[in-house]
Specification:
1136 residues; alpha/beta; Alpha-Beta Plaits; Rossmann fold; 8-stranded mixed β-sheet; 39% helix; helicase activity; hydrolase activity; Cas3-like_dom
């Protein structure tokens, strides 16, 4: 390709640019170059230009396509030196531009609150214990104030510095009203410090009794500032290890009982001596009140605040938008100031000697960094400017711009595409008509189109139509890495064509964030290729194998770095914010509400503040995670975002809860930013492929419920009419009589079902009968035990069974290899292509058997996130939701109606066979509050739901639950319990007082209690392992990551045992997936240019649940089964 480079650089940037371009191209003018170059070469040029780029750099690149046509490719540096076509301006004019501000009405209020809090946020660091810890004050001989009574070294004080800062501020305010204490601050003088010294002893926690909560005694503005001070590192949270937890029923009184342990859990440690506590309240170097520089700066802020009349018009502590934007500004300011390296302490009173922090020099030696008065001054000033900048923040960020693919109607596509996806045009038309309403009322939509109907592209079109092209920015949040990667690829492919410029645009406009570079590397490498084959587009990722979790595929605009100087210190946040479309696992946005520690909240809050939200398949999450999803949607509403829920299987109670969460959040946004829509109306819309899309302005949950129900009823009618009965299930019974164990009994029943299903569902391939089926079990340990029984069970005559065990506890490299094999084998849109590329043909060609059964023995990892098409399935039941999800993988691509049942559902699960009290839990919806009356599905009215499995049982609300007369009543129908259990989880009941709606029904976002009581993805502590190679024995061994060691170290461990005996296998059975670790590691090392030990450490990683300290359990690893534990209590004692 022939390209032309044009430089508009200035100053030193011109020399640097010439040096790079002269090495690659011929200079044909003073600042113009031309050459013939490959795409790889062009990428190298761009990379080198970016390395040396500064604010004075501006280089454009044009591709000469023909004699009459060139194509503008990119700009490195200042884009304002060129227009959208890469043309250099010949003249300039100026005019005033109005920057669109999101919350102009409240900007000054937020800025003043954040600034005042900034001046006070760390004044408590002046305490003697903290200054001893920094090394400012030397320990007096014989004193050990930072040692506990039990001689364990403590790196903390009885009370954290935020709490001491809070009490200092409270002592200063005293009993004054807001006008009075601000006036006192404005007229601060040398006597103020003495007055504070006299007032402070009354607020000495742990020394004085019955000190009132600051949220009870302080006036409104001071109360808000006090909360900002105490929460600037983390939200207050009651220690979970203490008894007498705050009652959820008295949630409105939590602020009244607010005490030190909410911020400083160590305060309740009885080992603290009276002397240690006393020293925690001593200030030998004085507080910043003793600094003349701090006095002058804080006086200016107080005077400015007194002139802001709106500041006194409201109780801002109960205005969530103002409250949390002020906190965000303060956290950003503190984060930025603490990250600075160029500290001069020029803004510090030279007579004031207390310090705020320390740092390490290039020799790793610790030194005192910034004076305490200067730190508080700079954070206060920064917080003010950041709050002002945040108002126009969104308007300065990169936007999607005009995208032809999003504007082209499906009607202009070929007929077969038009017939399948024409519903998208109606959806876009409706969304575009709502553009003006959405400005005033926000937007809450539900996209319910079925799988395969282009929902990913439709969602992008809807979000694009709801905004102006130069304002369109949105996030797509998903539950799984694999889905995130698939969605990002689909959007890049759909929105941008294949030419060079469009590929560049795709990388800049659609960012992918999955949290693991190793996962992304393996996704781009075909592990089944021969060792000599090249990496397909994998080298770039492999080159920069960063441990950085926020590694994005988008690039950063240098001009935006200049626009947000307060973010310069953190390139991770800049990357996260830059791209107009961010596709990620929800884990990167959920800390906006779930990140109790302040630093974790900053990036996702900025992202939600500057872009809309598409929440993809929220009902796929565990029911216990749904309260956290509601909190995220509530936050999106509060920050002014539009929200689109994308799911075809959402329960009515889930839809209602998400709507109410959004509505209440939007109401907070409206309260802070204007008087429109005080009734809480929200612009709602519903989209699918069956009905005409509809929209309504809705102000109550009951109205929403009615509208949603009418939409899903019509959808269900349409789906029934077009139902091909692709997934027909029946119950099958387990007979444990004569069996030694329940796992053996389950294996026998599964084997029988497998053989029956193969006979009825097999397809012809290479003159053989072939079927591929999924056997889904609830838990890994049971799955492995059942697999062992199946491996040793002979297949019927003239039949070979190929087994593959698949779950989440494999080394990453092996799991990826399994997934790539299954992706090929189960991509069945085109029968001929499948026969050639699936790898199945090669497995059966040279075998004598006529029948070949391929079985994937898997856990729930096979249910969600894999675009696979099976012929049949056998299911261990845990919930109707999981059965529906699994059924969606049967006949997913071919859509051929079976002549008989193609899914067998075991009538009992393993826990039911063991006669556990709750058998449909973990996974499942059954709890002590909501139980089934039987453990056998034969007795739970499942016939209709299983006859033709569809989403109807999920999206339609049951009319009246069928219950027993027990106390409490038990459910007689399998599908009804799920609706009730989720409704209780979201809205509570007389017996369940911890529920999701409390988040928006009560003022609880000031603390982290709801996040503690209903956490997101609650799990047991995990430990990290990877494989290593022992040079002495030439064998692989397991290594365990050392806790708290930096840089990361792995040490040999005996936690995982590698059994040496070969896996028993009947002659008629074989492994579908053969994994040779040595061969794969060697091949991957060559592809990535890494040592085999590096490859092992990075790509064989696996996280496992931490052992109980008193447990004698043992992990086992076998390549055929992954990592598992042996089953206990499996014997059929009761039956014998």
């Amino acid at each position: 390709m022939m390209v032309t480079f044009v430089s508009q650089c200035e100053k030193n940037a011109l020399k640097k640019t010439r040096r790079v371009l002269d090495a690659f191209a011929n200079r044909i003018g003073d600042n113009t170059w031309q050459t013939v170059i490959t795409q790889d070469g062009l990428d190298t040029v761009k990379k080198m230009l970016r390395k040396t780029a500064s604010r004075s750099t501006a280089v454009s690149c044009h591709w000469i396509r023909s004699r009459a046509r060139s194509q503008f490719l990119w700009v490195v540096g200042n884009k304002r030196k060129f227009n959208l076509e890469g043309v250099v301006p010949v003249n300039r004019t100026e005019k005033d531009l109005v920057v669109k501000e999101q919350f102009a009405l409240n900007t000054e209020v937020i800025a003043n609150l954040a600034a005042i809090a900034g001046f006070f946020h760390d004044v408590g660091k002046a305490n003697k214990l903290f200054q001893i810890k920094l090394g400012v004050i030397e320990l007096e001989e014989g004193k050990e104030f930072n040692l506990s009574a039990n001689s364990g070294k403590k790196n903390y004080e009885p009370l954290r510095h935020e709490w001491v800062s809070l009490r200092i501020f409270q002592a200063f305010v005293g009993e004054q009203c807001d006008q009075q204490w601000l006036q006192a601050l404005a007229s601060i003088n040398i006597n103020t410090a003495k007055e504070l010294e006299q007032a402070l002893p009354a607020y000495h926690d742990l020394l004085e009794k019955s000190i009132a909560s600051p949220f009870v005694t302080l006036p409104p503005i001071a109360k808000m500032v006090a909360w900002l001070i105490v929460s600037h590192h983390r939200l207050p949270q009651f220690p979970k290890f203490l008894e007498n937890q705050p009652s959820i029923e008295s949630v409105e009184q939590w602020q009244s009982v607010f005490e030190p342990c909410w911020n400083s859990p160590q305060a309740i440690d009885k080992d603290w001596s009276q002397e240690q506590i006393t020293v925690n309240w001593q200030f030998p170097l004085g507080t910043p009140f003793n600094s003349s520089d701090w006095q002058k700066a804080v006086s200016d802020v107080a005077k400015r605040s007194l002139q802001c009349q709106r500041l006194f018009s409201n109780d801002w502590h109960h205005n969530l938008f103002t409250q949390h934007l002020a906190r965000l500004s303060l956290m950003l300011a503190d984060h930025g100031e603490s990250s600075r390296k160029d500290i001069t302490n020029k803004d510090s009173d030279r007579n004031y000697l207390a310090y705020a922090n320390t740092d390490k020099d290039e020799k790793d030696k610790r030194y005192l960094k910034q004076k305490l008065d200067e730190h508080n001054i700079n954070v206060g000033k920064r917080a003010y400017h950041i709050a002002c900048d945040l108002a126009g923040f969104k308007s300065k960020l990169n936007t999607l711009g005009k995208v032809k693919a999003l504007e082209t109607p499906v009607a202009k596509k070929p007929k077969h595409i038009h017939d399948e996806f024409s519903w998208q045009d109606e959806a876009v038309k409706l969304a575009a008509s709502l553009k003006e309403k959405v400005e005033d009322y926000g937007f809450f939509g539900i996209s319910m189109a079925s799988t395969g109907k282009g929902k990913t592209r439709a969602n992008a079109k809807i979000m694009y139509a709801l905004s102006e092209p130069d304002e369109c920015r949105f996030n797509v949040a998903l539950g799984l890495r694999t889905l995130s990667i698939q969605t990002a690829k689909a959007l890049r492919k759909d929105l941008f064509s294949e030419d060079v410029k469009s590929q560049q645009q795709a990388r800049e406009k659609v960012a992918l964030l999955v949290g693991s570079q190793a996962v992304r590397d393996l996704q781009q490498i075909d592990l089944s290729q021969d060792e000599s084959s090249e990496v397909d587009k994998g080298s770039e990722s492999a080159e920069s194998l960063l441990k950085d979790e926020l590694d994005l595929l988008s690039e950063i605009d240098l001009e935006q770095l200049a626009s947000f100087s307060w973010l310069k210190h953190d390139s991770k946040i800049l990357k996260l914010l830059h791209a107009p479309i961010l596709v990620s696992t929800i884990d990167y946005l959920i800390p906006a509400t779930e990140g109790v520690r302040g630093g974790r909240q900053i990036a996702p809050m900025l992202r939600l503040l500057s872009s809309d939200l598409v929440l993809d398949e929220p009902d796929d999450f565990n029911s216990a995670d749904f309260p956290a999803l509601c909190r995220l949607v509530n936050w999106a509403g509060m920050l002014g975002s539009k929200v689109l829920i994308s799911t075809a299987t959402i329960m009515p109670c889930e839809a209602e809860a998400l709507f109410e969460a959004y509505q209440q959040g939007r109401l907070e946004y409206t309260k802070a930013n204007g008087d429109k829509n005080t009734q809480g109306k929200v612009c709602c819309a519903w989209f699918d492929e069956c009905n005409k899309p509809k929209s309504e302005l809705i102000d109550t949950v009951s109205t929403f419920a009615t509208e949603h129900e009418s939409f899903v009823i019509e959808r269900d009618k349409a789906l029934v009419k077009s139902d091909l009965r692709l997934r027909q299930a029946k119950l099958v019974d387990i007979d444990s009589v004569g069996m030694d164990s329940y796992s053996e009994a389950m294996a026998a029943r599964i084997h029988q079902s497998v053989c029956e299903l193969h006979v009825s569902q097999a397809v012809k391939l290479a003159d053989k009968k072939v079927s591929i089926g999924l056997v889904r079990m609830a838990n890994i340990n049971l799955l492995v035990q059942v697999a062992k029984h199946l491996f040793t069970t002979a297949a019927p005559p003239n039949t070979r069974i190929h087994y593959c065990v698949y779950h989440g506890q494999y080394p990453l490299l092996q799991r990826t290899a399994i997934e790539q094999m299954l992706d090929k084998a189960l991509k069945r849109h085109d029968t001929e292509q499948w026969a050639q590329e699936s790898g199945v043909t090669e497995r059966i060609e040279n075998t004598a058997e006529l029948n070949h059964i391929f079985i994937v023995l898997a856990t729930s990892v096979a249910e969600v996130g894999r675009d696979h098409d099976y012929d049949w399935a056998v299911v261990e039941p845990s919930s109707m939701r999981s059965i529906i999800q699994l059924a969606g993988r049967v006949q997913r691509h071919r859509k051929q109606t079976p002549k008989t049942h193609n899914i067998h559902v075991l009538s009992q699960n393993y826990r039911g066979l063991l006669k556990k009290l709750l058998c449909f839990e973990k996974p499942g919806f059954e709890t002590k509050l909501v139980q089934y009356f039987s453990k056998d599905l034969n007795e739970l009215n499942t016939e209709q739901a299983l006859d033709s499995i569809s989403a109807a049982t999920r999206i339609l609300k049951p009319l009246q639950p069928n219950l027993t007369h027990d106390s409490p009543p038990k459910f007689k129908t399998f599908v009804e319990l799920e609706h009730t259990a989720q409704s209780i989880n979201l809205y509570g009941s007389r017996s369940s007082i911890i529920y999701a709606a409390r988040w928006w029904q009560h003022d609880v976002s000031w603390c982290g209690e709801m996040q503690r009581l209903q956490p997101f993805r609650e799990s047991h502590l995990s430990e990290d392992y990877s494989l290593g190679f022992a040079e002495r024995t030439h064998r692989y061994l397991w290594l365990k990551k050392e806790d708290g060691v930096y840089p990361t170290e792995y040490k040999p461990t005996k936690d995982i045992e590698n059994p040496t005996e070969p896996v028993a296998m009947a002659f008629s059975n074989s492994l579908w997936h053969q994994f040779d670790l040595s061969k794969q590691v060697k091949a991957l090392s060559e592809k990535l240019g890494k040592s085999e030990q590096q490859t092992l450490t990075i790509y064989t990683h696996v996280s496992l649940q931490e052992f109980d300290k008193e447990s004698i359990e043992q992990w086992f690893f076998q390549a055929e089964f992954g990592i598992y534990k042996l089953l206990t209590k499996d014997d059929c004692n009761n039956d014998k």
